[in-house]
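So, could you explain this one?
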Amino acid sequence: MPRRQQPTARQERLGTELRKLREAAGLKGREAAVLLGTDSAQMSQIEAGTAGVSEERVRRLAAQYSCTDAALIEALVTMATDRTHGWWEEYRGRLPTPFMDLPELEHHASFRWDVEFLHMPGLLQTAEYARLLFAYVNPEFPESDVERWVEHRMKRRVIIERAEPVPYEALIHEAALRIRVGDRRAARDQLGRVLELSEAAHVTVRVIPFDLDGFGGAGSGMVYAGGPVSKLDTIVRDGPVGPVFIDAEAQLSRYRTLFRRVEAVSLDPDRSRDFIHRLAKEL
């Protein structure tokens, strides 16, 4: 099997999880390679995601590592054998690689949480809002490039619009609701879009109002994608060249706690809808 030049984040995550299991078992890479009947170089490539691994090898490694978590093993087997070529593949080579990894992560997510303080969550944005945002942040981009980014973002919404949507919860600060990326009409349309989606049974929108006392969570913006098991959850933060994926167990625990803390002080869904209605009427 040829070595991958640019493994996807999902392929890298599989390798990372296999490495975590090996380290938990107290084995070195060369020892695991011997047990697998391969060499250290091949083992390193598997754990880096640059080489594929079969279902039989995943199960053999799990047994050698004394992993008894059946749900985790099945999830890793699925990651190793899945051959999904989603809509995002048409953008490969046209947009930076991390922006291919994000919709793939979303496609496989069991749930999705967003916390946003300055802009509307991407999944809730109208095309006009996204277009104005991309054009403002990247004034040097030609119109065709901006349209490509907008098109990509709109297609990502499929996870909450498809027949079997992903359960989705968005915590949106009042600042993001009030900042006018465009004119008043565009702002009304954007708030209307949020209200429309918030009526869906699988979508929960909560507002974080300005007048909270003792709220220090404004630096806790995140995208949190649930995996098939909690160990395979992923946090996504903005980086200088695109989304950064975080999967360390301690970080996952920290951000789960942060999400619940922010959720606890947010307005409930009904009060949030009323809040957004009032803002829309002010425009």
